[in-house]
């Protein structure tokens, strides 16, 4: 059964033409169509020419959004010894060792990002079934398995995001709030585009970028002209 489209969304969809928009035009339209009663996020949905079932066609990396995410990120750290103190002093919201692993096993999930030191990973591994499906499992590729706790905590709190292509080769990323200025959203979107290009999997064949659509959380999808976005030079995003 198809979802019923609300009258609000039907009206907004009339504003969006079925064509690729220039990035600034698309972002301005995204802001105009963010009319829900809460603070909506700006979302990007990017279809890439990759088949992630092959290991050389997987994309999993991080991007630092220069203008931040607009969200408060709660960081938990699993470490031991002096690293526990370092994490606390660096602004982690929750810090612990084996006892924190036990708490998480018991269902405590009061965090958005989990960082672990490499020496704790053998114990953290048992949380895989719980954390994996939620995208919270620490990983070296995601920058969440590290001894540099101060650096990792400050980066994730400032706007560093981990993202990956799903099994159909689509990347879904929130790149700010719809309340950001179009200029700030553009700086963040450009940083995302450059990160995806820089991390092109070695096995990606043919055309890498297929389509990119952006939208506010409850707004209609707006197609962005990929070539124009890639050619665009943005002062802060260089």
From TrEMBL:
MF annotations from Gene Ontology: rRNA binding; structural constituent of ribosome; tRNA binding
GO BP term, pick one: translation
Keywords: Repressor, Ribonucleoprotein, Ribosomal protein, RNA-binding, rRNA-binding, Translation regulation, tRNA-binding
Pfam annotation, one family: Ribosomal_L1
InterPro entries: Ribosom_uL1_bac-type (IPR005878), Ribosomal_uL1 (IPR002143), Ribosomal_uL1-like (IPR023674), Ribosomal_uL1/biogenesis (IPR028364), Ribosomal_uL1_3-a/b-sand (IPR016095), Ribosomal_uL1_CS (IPR023673)
Similarity comment text for this entry: Belongs to the universal ribosomal protein uL1 family.
Entry function: Binds directly to 23S rRNA. The L1 stalk is quite mobile in the ribosome, and is involved in E site tRNA release.
Protein known as: Large ribosomal subunit protein uL1
Organism, scientific name: Limnofasciculus baicalensis BBK-W-15
Gene: rplA
